[in-house]
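pasting for the record
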Amino acid sequence: MRASRLVSLLLLLQTRGQLTAAELARELEVSVRTIHRDVEALAESGVPIYTERGPHGGIRLVDGYRTRLTGLTGDEAEALFLSGLPGPAAELGLGTVVAAARLKVLAALPTELRGRATRLVERFHLDAAGWFQAGEAVPHLATVSEAVWEGRRLAIAYDRGDGPTDRTVDPLGLVLKAGTWYLVGAAEGQPRTYRVSRIHDARVLDEHAARPADFDLSSYWAESSAAYEREAPRIDVELRVRPDRLGDLSVAVGERAIRVAERLPGSDPEGWLHLRLTLDWPAEVPARLLAAGPDVEVLGPPEVRDRIAVLASGVAERYRAVGTAAG
């Protein structure tokens, strides 16, 4: 524990220059007295560290004392710090590990590269989740991650919509797609994709997982994603929407559907837009369009329009019943 803290103290000084004992204590979550003891220990071990007294003093390293990474270009340093995703790392139980690794790399960079990497972190932030989307609960992600990393078979209770089913899989990798975690695992010798939020229970087994020598996670994901997009059931829907509420429709059905939507000719008495959209998973379409609100009207097909009417009637009846009971 103390060894790790001493390394962190050293890296903080390499990265930021002079810091007071109080500032170091806050960063490392220890007392000021502990910082002074750590500084003494570093000095006794030969590290050129010293304390400057006075109102503008602090603890610092002798100029030029630092470890350098060689062969790292400015573009590579920027890409390294842009690639970090603290949120997903934390979900995997690696948040503190990622933070420590970034600090070590930053401390080891030459001055110019360190400045560029720091500016990048200050000016860019990656947020994997979409607007108005709460993160999915993934209580078993750490267990799944352990099985993937250790190459052990995994026993899971997986729910495809009709209740959990027990399965044993050979984990091949984890993928984060638009804020959602997916497990790629082999079952009966075939790679399959499992949404981690639908795993109700997970247990790492003592058996080694079978991993095909030629399996490549990124290639598999690209191919399976393309197949999903080709094979997903779809339905064409015609609707009218108030121009200034197009954003609400986009949230309900996705930006991609709006981007490729066909604008239908003709005039509308209220100046609304008429569009033809191609949407995935027809059974889910009525509820998604109902969520767009009253400024979207479905014109066809009739079965979608009728289903929306049934859903809307049920919602209205529910609220009428609540209002009556409250009165």
